Amino acid sequence: QVQLMESGGGLVQAGGSLELSCEASGSIFGFNSMGWYRQAPGKQRELVASITDSGATNYGHSAKGRIAISRDNAQNTVWMRMNSLKLEDTAVYFCNLHVHSSGLSFWGQGTQVTVSS
Predict the structure, then answer these.
(1) For labeling, which of 9, 14, 26, 97 is most exposed (least CB within 10 Å)?
(2) What long-range pairs does 3-9 form, CB within 8 A, spacing at least 24?
(3) pLDDT tens track of the chain, all 117 residues?
């Protein structure tokens, strides 16, 4: 079983920056992606950014050059740096690990990011 431990959420002022991290533990086999999704109240969960274990990145429309994702395969950890935060970035951010060969996805419990004016 895979477990994802998230950290780094919190309250930040608009225009500020925040870094989220997520460490995966357990049995992880095969080509996989790690990344972050977010869900704001009343909205669907959406991709923010993901990165494969070979380093290929994928950014959602909300990223728009403000977000950078990176990972360390040896530590099974992914980091996401968010800059120039806006009020609309307020959401619960969920870490995800997707194993492409099996189609399995694992989710963290979510961490709240609140951007204030």
Answers:
(1) 26
(2) 3/106, 4/95, 4/96, 4/97, 4/106, 4/107, 4/108, 5/108, 6/93, 6/94, 6/95, 6/108, 6/109, 6/110, 6/111, 7/111, 8/111, 9/93, 9/111, 9/112, 9/113
(3) 899 999 999 999 999 999 999 999 998 778 899 999 999 999 999 999 999 999 999 999 988 789 999 999 999 999 999 999 999 999 999 999 999 988 999 999 999 999 999
C-alpha pair distances (Å), 67 with each of 19, 48, 61, 99: 9, 8, 11, 23
Among 101, 95, 113, which residue's Cα sits nearest to residue 23? 95
